[in-house]
Amino acid sequence: MAIDVRARVTLRTMEQFVAVAEELHFHRAAERLNMSQPPLTSAIRKLEEDIDVTLIERGNRVLGLTPAGEKFLEEARETLRQAEQAITGTKDVAAGRTGLVRLGYVGSSLYGRLPDAIRAFRLQYPKVRLELREATTAAQIAAIRAGTMDVGVVIPPLHHAEDVELDRFDSDRLCMALPKDHPLGKQGRVKLSDLSDEPFVLWPMLEGRGFHLQVIRLCANAGFVPRVEQEAYGMHAVLSLVAVGLGVSVVPESMSGFRDDRITYRPINDAGSEFELSFIYRDLSPSAASFVCHASGKEKYKVL
Amino acid sequence: MAIDVRARVTLRTMEQFVAVAEELHFHRAAERLNMSQPPLTSAIRKLEEDIDVTLIERGNRVLGLTPAGEKFLEEARETLRQAEQAITGTKDVAAGRTGLVRLGYVGSSLYGRLPDAIRAFRLQYPKVRLELREATTAAQIAAIRAGTMDVGVVIPPLHHAEDVELDRFDSDRLCMALPKDHPLGKQGRVKLSDLSDEPFVLWPMLEGRGFHLQVIRLCANAGFVPRVEQEAYGMHAVLSLVAVGLGVSVVPESMSGFRDDRITYRPINDAGSEFELSFIYRDLSPSAASFVCHASGKEKYKVL
DNA sequence: CTCAATGATACAAAAAATATATCACGGATC
DNA sequence: GATCCGTGATATATTTTTTGTATCATTGAG
């Protein structure tokens, strides 16, 4: 029976009651509701019958609310507000204005366009929560497949990852990082081949395999195999070791935004020094689509 | 336009969507809703059209919710819950199960049935808030007229108060209060006329005029005019002064529940020693009606 | 290849909401 | 005190919405 009652009392009924309760005048209320007075009168009466409670006191010519009417006015307002939120909230989600984006990124991307893209996105989509996690390209692919990450920022090429989509986001190139007191560091122009006999500091191959290979290949093209004397996890660690003179390294040019008095950066003009940063994803939630869309500047994405 | 949309999305629609979202199966959902499948299908489609958001992913033979659908499921559930509360809450108010009762009472009523009545009422109507305020009969009448009090517990008769309704609640009688070391206090039987020459402690006439007059009249019938030597506000104060020997007094018998080693109570058998405690009220809110109804044991009251 | 399951479509019937016209009542006005 | 205006109630017709019945289209399993 309770279910039956709820079925009969509609949002429209509540809207009508609120209008009458606020105006305390059937004609004015009907006008506000863009309807005529008779159906309004009967609607209110049916409402009272349905819930079996007198809500409006019909004293001669003056209307008043019973205590129950006051209560229903309050509750009906809240119900209407909630109903409206149901719709606007849903539209927000659909439009990607609300939601959660779990964003992964490779460490080096923090020195490119990504931070600015994040800042701009947060301004335009304040209700989207962003969860950021640094991870290697391989780890991001795994997380996206596992559904624990929505979007990743990685360095292509990807291997065995035909199931994830890829969108170019930023480009960068490799450059040399030299200790400032190193002979080459004082020299104006340095060629990559000049490093053939120098000890290298590099990240382990497990951390960013594709990127690692690109460095090796680049050196190979310059005619040598880099002698890796020291490995370190993370670009910052690599650079710290370069700073104290443990060796030279090849890092993304955007890392030169990371300043250290003991390090000198030198460009590499060899072909193959360029690399890209791309978004990867599989099923884009609307909010994740908003992010990729906004950051990559492309127009539309099919959302899940 | 937003208003238009809200007008089209009804509670029924939400109920239908919730059923489909929970079952992920149109036929089962329709069965649960006691309707057939085709109109359910079209209702959901119309809902999606109305808010212009895809809520249900119709993958071949398997249904799934889009992120927006998840959101709408959550919000629709909340809306339905709120709508149901609007009705049940209103019914609670109408039935007097919820609300506020501002109850006034004369001090002496605290030693009669009132405390028990309050306790029992609170057990049966836990959602009704009770505001208690001690006040004289006259003050209660004024407060009820002013609309700042719902129900009063007073000692009739009332004067110039034809506009308030009166309901007998409890009865009591007057008794003598004597200092224990007073000669009369040691005597087994005491007649009221024995007090004719004793100094009296009484409350001022302003505080409980009708009650005061009853004492005077009672003494007059016993053949004397009480010599009031000391006035004190409140029964407790009166009794305290009796306890220290400042005089004798006549107080409600129920006050003998207030024990003091220095006071002896003696019954008054004279006609006219009885008095009543009554509820007074004007417009009973449902919760106030519940209270009066419950306390006085009567069945039904017309509620405002 | 057929069958069962499932959602979509078309059309008809039922129910509900709303509009129009009118009445009934009460207080204000002259 | 008769009349009129403002207000809510009633009766009935019309439109809109919702629901039901019958049927089809697609898909995956045996």
Supply the CATH architecture of the largest domain in chain A: 3-Layer(aba) Sandwich
According to CATH, the fold-level topology of the largest domain in chain A is D-Maltodextrin-Binding Protein, domain 2
**Run of helices and strands of chain A:** HHHHEEHEHEHEEHEHEHEEEH
Shape of chain A: rod-shaped
Helical coverage of chain A, percent range: 40-55%
Q: How many structural domains in the coordinates of chain A?
A: 2
Name of the CATH first level of the largest domain in chain A: Alpha Beta
The structural class of chain A is alpha/beta
* First-to-last CA distance of chain A: 40 Å
Mean pLDDT of chain A: 88
Number of strands of chain A: 11
Radius of gyration of chain A: 32 Å
Give the largest interface pair and sizes: A-B, 46 and 47 residues
Mind explaining what this structure looks like?
The structure is a homodimer of 304-residue chains. Chain A is of the alpha/beta class. Chain A has two domains: 2-92, Winged helix-like DNA-binding domain superfamily/Winged helix DNA-binding domain (Arc Repressor Mutant, subunit A); 95-304, D-Maltodextrin-Binding Protein, domain 2 (3-Layer(aba) Sandwich). Chain A has eleven helices and eleven strands. Chain A has helices at residues 2-8, 11-23, 26-32, 37-51, 67-94, 114-124, 137-146, 183-186, 209-221, 235-243, 286-296; strands at 56-59, 62-65, 99-105, 128-134, 151-154, 165-179, 199-202, 227-231, 249-252, 263-267, 274-281. In chain A, strands 3, 4, 5, 6, 9, 10 and 11 form a seven-stranded mixed beta sheet that branches. A two-stranded antiparallel ribbon of chain A has the order 1-2. The longest helix of chain A is centred in the N-terminal third of the chain and has 28 residues, at 67-94. Chains A and B meet through helix 1, helix 2 and helix 5 of A and helix 1, helix 2 and helix 5 of B. Chain A binds a DNA duplex (30 and 30 nucleotides) through residues 12, 25-27, 35-43, 45, 58, 60-61, 63.
